[in-house]
Each structure stands twice: as C-alpha cells, then as structure tokens.
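Handout, section B. The chain below has 179 residues.
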Amino acid sequence: LQMASVTSTVSNGGRVFQPRLIERVAERDGKIVFREPPEIKHDLTKEGLTRESVETVKRGMWRVVNESGGTAPRAKSEITTISGKTGTTQTGKPNEPTNAWFIAYAPYDTPELAVCVFVHNGFSGGRAAAPIAKNIIDETMAMRKGKNITLERLPEAEGNFDRIEMVSFDSEGLKEYAS
C-alpha cells in the first residue's frame, strides 16, 4: 500500500492522497450508495519538490514500459498508457532467490490507477510482477468501459514457494513458469 501511495504521489504531480481501498459502492443499476471523496494529505511541491523533478520521474517511468530498452516491456498495454518501475529485491540471505516488484500507474496523462505488485521468489520485476500489474490495470480499465467481469472465489493457496521465472496471461488466464 505504501508503494502504491508513492506511485500515486508521482502520478499526481507530488500530491499525496490519503489511500483508500473503496472509492464508491454502486448498486447493479448504477445508483451510487456510498462515495468517499479523495483527501489530499500533502502537496510535496509546496514542501520543496520541484514540478520538474516530478516530471522527470514520470517520464522515466513511462520509458521503463514504453521505450525500447526499458525493463518492463511486458507491461505495455493496448488499452491505456502504463508507466512503471521495476524492482528486484534481495532477501538478505546469500544464494537465496530474489523477490520481484513492479509499481505502475495509468493512464500517463490523466492518472486514475496506482498499482504495486510484489512476487515472492520472483525472478525479476519486469518478467514476474509487471505482467500482473498490466493485467490488473487492463481489466480495471475494461470494466470502466463496460466490460462485465465475473468474480470468482480463488482456491485456497497451497503454500507453493517455488521460484517464479515469468508470469504470462492468455485467454485462459494466468500462466506461471517456475524455474
């Protein structure tokens, strides 16, 4: 949640919003029964962060996904413009697998979503975490455009901690490749 908040802060030009998990609740007919308005906690541009610095970071995050040589080309979307930052973190134990991170926001020009994905034992942020973030963002944007999503209960986790080399999605859903 903290890294999603950092991502949101960058995408919003330095404004720090109070995180919330639910923006609104609507009935099936679309009638809004609850809405929580956004609340700005801080404006970092009023505390010394320059707008130019924020724009430099935003442009760098766009390049990570959308330019040749970026570390997260697997997050590039046909639905919206995703910007992000990959990360691979050590566990602190020599010769242990790393963990994969990816933070992202979309769309680039008019941000609506901030996402943070962490894959335990993930090989790299670009290969394991970025495709998951792309899927979350694409499905959310498709829902906002009217796509009907059927929610299903996930099966209970079995505690598999194998190394995740890469994550992919196809028409049947998630595919993991363990090394």
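Note. DSSP finds three helices and nine strands in the chain. Compare this with the example in section A.
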